[in-house]
Amino acid sequence: MAKLLLTPENQIQRLNQLLDNFSSLQKLPPEILRFKPHPKSWNVLEVLEHLSICYNQYEEKIITALKASTDTNTGSWEYQPGFWIRFVIEGQRPKGQHRPFKLKTLKKFEPHMVLEPDTKAVQNVMERFRNNYLALKRNIKDSRSKIMDHPRFASAIGSVVSFRLPESFELLRCHAERHMIHRAGIIASQD
Amino acid sequence: MESSSKEIIRNFFSPVALPSAEEDWFFSLWEERTFKQNALITEAGQMERFFYIILEGVQVIYLLNQKGDKVVLGFSYSGSPSGVFDSFLYQKPSDTFLEALRPSRALALSRDNYLALFKTNPDFHQWGHSFFREILFGRLFREVELLTLSARERYISFMQRCPDDLKVIPQKYLASYLNMKPETFSRLRRSVSY
Q1: Nearest-by-CA chain B residue for A140
Q2: Residue A16 with chain B: CB contacts under 8 Å
Q3: Which of A135, A154, B100, B130 could form a disulfide with B104 if both were Cys (CB 3.0 to 4.6 A apart)?
């Protein structure tokens, strides 16, 4: 498996693209956001809610790790994950415009939404997603002045996978990019 | 605004002679902004909102190549302009990062105010012509150096014209600007006098 060098600048640039992509969703009418291609598949709102749930699973751990990291004035970090974490991240990272393979969603990451969310509920989902991923970007920016010397923390699937901050940022970013392809597919299926 | 800041702006826009009433308005358009060391002033993927004139500090403008490495395009320092001009003028997301390498102080002009200058006084068109001509020829000169000089020659040429402000920034940025590895830059610094 090729080397994977993580930098906060790369993560920030990709997150800006993701947030820009999200801005285009905000212009869409609620019917499109509520549309399910099949009764069992997710709509765009459920995809966004799933991404918010995932971020929330890490939020506190990220903040704790940021507090535990030493401040430095030597410029931003570069980080190379080990083989196992690279494998986990690469499983999420989209390959071009395709998701590498479908993954089964664990119960705790499933979005629970009413069948026909009203305008207020739609706005809440959109706002929650935006606030969460802006917070993720803020966390990445805050980490730039730190050394990644904090203790590893357990991932959202348990301690079988544990992260340092750059790895958790990368996983969340790749996971969100993966689902942006997912949501593009849902919208395209309406044409 | 401090009189020293006014002097810097006057020098920067030197062909433009404004009557004193207009000058007050002109100075009122600028706001002072400060940036901590390593702060991202503009992020790739975001819109540049300001045209800057630097009062203090050093900034670097760079983009990320496909491997994610920083490729340095240029620096700004005391008295020089700064910002991501293509994003600022065309209102498109920036492809580059602008980062403060040293704690920085800058005067910032918003796009609306920048455009207002050209509507208010035709002398600003003359300034704009000279300003972008200087930038264009500066970039051409750099391109010729990159394409025709050896690493050693590029190092000597750069160090001879390099302002003192830039000599104290991390070597990796200077090395990238000169299109050489940090190890090569370090070796040249040890062995070459200029």
Answers
A1: B40
A2: 43-46, 93
A3: B100
Convert the pLDDT of each residue in B81-138 to its tens digit: 999 999 999 999 999 999 999 999 999 999 999 999 999 888 999 999 999 999 999 9
- B38 to A76: CB separation less than 8 angstroms, yes or no: yes
Lowest average pLDDT, out of A89-98, A172-181, B60-69, B143-152, goes to: A89-98
B43 touches chain A (CB under 8 A): yes
pLDDT tens-place string over residues B167-192: 888 999 999 999 999 999 999 999 98
* Nearest CA distance, A143 vs chain B (angstrom): 12
Helices (H), chain A: 8-26, 30-34, 44-68, 83-92, 119-143, 165-188
Q: What is the ipTM of this complex?
A: 0.85
pTM: 0.89
Q: Which of B45, B67, B170 sits opposite A75 (nearest CB)?
A: B170
**Is A144 within 8 Å of B64 when comparing Cβ atoms?**
no
Query: Which contiguous run of DSSP H or E holds residue B107?
Result: strand B104-110
What residues pair up with B105 in beta bridges, in sequence order?
B34, B56
Partner residues linked to B34 by β-bridges = B105
Chain-centroid distance, C-alpha B36: 17
Task: Give me the helix-helix angle, A8-26 and A165-188, nearest 10°.
Answer: 30
Distances (CA, A) of B38 to A101, B99, B122: 38, 6, 38
Structure tokens at A109: 């990451």
- The angle, 0 to 180 degrees and rounded to 10, between the axes of the packed helices A165-188 and A83-92 is 20
> What are the chain A neighbours of B70 within 8 Å (beta carbons)?
9
